[in-house]
Amino acid sequence: MDKNKIQKNFLIKILCFITAFGVWLYIYNVENPTRSYKLTGVPVEIVNTDTIESSKLTVLPNQDLTVTLTLEGPASEVYRAKAEQFKIVVDLSTYAVKKGSNLIPVEITQYPTNINIKKNESLRVNVEIDEYIEKSVPVKLEVDVTTKDSYYPFEQVVKPDNVLVSGAATYVNSVQWVLAKGSATNADADVSLNLPLKAVDETMKEVKDVKINPTTVDVLIPVRKSKNVTIKVPTKGENNKNIIIKTIEPAPSSIDLVGETQDIGNIEYIETEALDLSTITGNNTVTLKLALPKDAKPVNGKDTVSVKVTVETINQNSVSVPVTITGLSAGLNAEPGSKNISVALKGTDSLLSNIKDGDITATIDLTNLAEGEHSIAPKVKVKEGMTIESISPEKLKITITKVVKPEE
């Protein structure tokens, strides 16, 4: 019994819902009463922005302007209204504006028929206006060029090298450069590029919402043949007598030259300006200008080279040298007044500090000399690189006697 009662009540509820829904459909479609409805987030477009540039003003970019509309009309229309069915504008040619925030009335230029917009004359939006400025900005190149072997890219040339950036001062003042980026690969001839420009700040971050004029630049990258040649250092003058110049070495010892093939093809080496040896007093590194051919340039852009000069100091030293007697006839005996002589030598430290047996010899030749006392100058020979400053004594007293045979 309770179960039948529950089922009966459920059927009654369903019939009531169907009846109510049918009444609502009748009223909505047949009676269609007038209703009010608030439509939010309707976008507002700013028009005729160029008219205020003559007053050195402009609209700040990226303003999201919207209004809320109070719609009135048939329920079937107002409840189905969408924001894109409306066109709402702010016309800057109609109002006087100033830098900063400006509360400006809007105009509704397009909306659905059968719908009224209540209090539309009071609709306003805040429009931010900034100072309009222009400034000249240098072009910054980021052009990556790779070439074939033995070819080299010269300095890039951009035209124009400055462009005009204009717009809201807030944005234009942050522009440091306009960037032109591009690339070329496997080049063996001049490269010409037309590159678009992008405004960037000091951190190389793009600054949008500014105008750039012109919007592109032409970039020329000359590409020339290169050749590696040795560097030679000619000398002039006499070096100081107290030193010996051991090495003269340019660093680097060779250089890459670039130019037209016919201009560099026969170049085997280039010279520096002459190194004046009279100015060298010790180990030193000097900078000398390269004598570059007229139609060739160094790849590294430098027209000078460092030259390292190493020297060794010349000193004096006295050495005691034993005297060797030669040429004594048979049956004779020779007795020198001294078995050693003192030889004053001049040479580099490395030679004088490393004298070995045989590097210096002193001999006295007694060929064809008979008995008696003789004064003879010894003959002294020294190792290459040494010079004899003096010999003491200059002559040695030699006593020659017959060899006495023992009595039988």
Q: How do you describe this structure in short?
A:
With 408 residues, the chain is mostly beta strands.
Give short descriptive properties of this protein.
408 residues; mainly beta; RNA Polymerase Alpha Subunit, Chain A, domain 2; 5 domains; seven-stranded mixed beta sheet; 31 strands; rod-shaped
* Biggest β-sheet strands, sense, barrel: 9 strands, mixed
Number of helices: 5
Mean pLDDT: 89
CATH architecture descriptor text of the largest domain: Beta Complex
Write the layout of secondary structure elements.
Elements: H1 2-31, E1 34-47, E2 57-59, E3 66-74, H2 75-78, E4 87-91, E5 100-105, E6 107-110, E7 116-118, E8 124-147, E9 151-153, E10 157-159, E11 162-168, H3 169-172, E12 177-187, E13 191-200, E14 211-213, E15 216-221, E16 223-232, E17 235-236, E18 243-251, E19 254-259, H4 261-264, E20 269-271, E21 275-276, E22 284-289, E23 296-298, E24 304-326, E25 332-336, E26 340-348, H5 349-352, E27 360-365, E28 372-376, E29 379-382, E30 387-392, E31 396-402
Parallel strand pairs: 1-4, 8-12, 16-20, 17-21, 24-27
Antiparallel strand pairs: 1-3, 2-8, 3-7, 4-6, 5-8, 8-11, 9-16, 10-15, 11-14, 12-13, 13-15, 16-19, 18-24, 19-23, 22-24, 24-26, 25-31, 26-30, 27-29, 28-31
What features would you describe in this structure?
By secondary structure, the chain is mainly β. The chain has five domains: 27 residues; 100 residues, RNA Polymerase Alpha Subunit, Chain A, domain 2 (Beta Complex); 93 residues, RNA Polymerase Alpha Subunit, Chain A, domain 2 (Beta Complex); 88 residues, RNA Polymerase Alpha Subunit, Chain A, domain 2 (Beta Complex), CATH 2.170.120; 88 residues, RNA Polymerase Alpha Subunit, Chain A, domain 2, CATH 2.170.120. Helix content is 11%, strand content 53%. The protein has five helices and 31 strands. The strands form six sheets. Strands 2, 5, 8, 10, 11, 12, 13, 14 and 15 form a nine-stranded mixed β-sheet that branches. Strands 18, 22, 24, 26, 27, 29 and 30 form a seven-stranded mixed β-sheet that branches. A five-stranded mixed β-sheet has the order 6-4-1-3-7. A hairpin with a 3-residue loop joins strand 12 and strand 13. The longest helix is centred in the first third of the chain and has 30 residues.
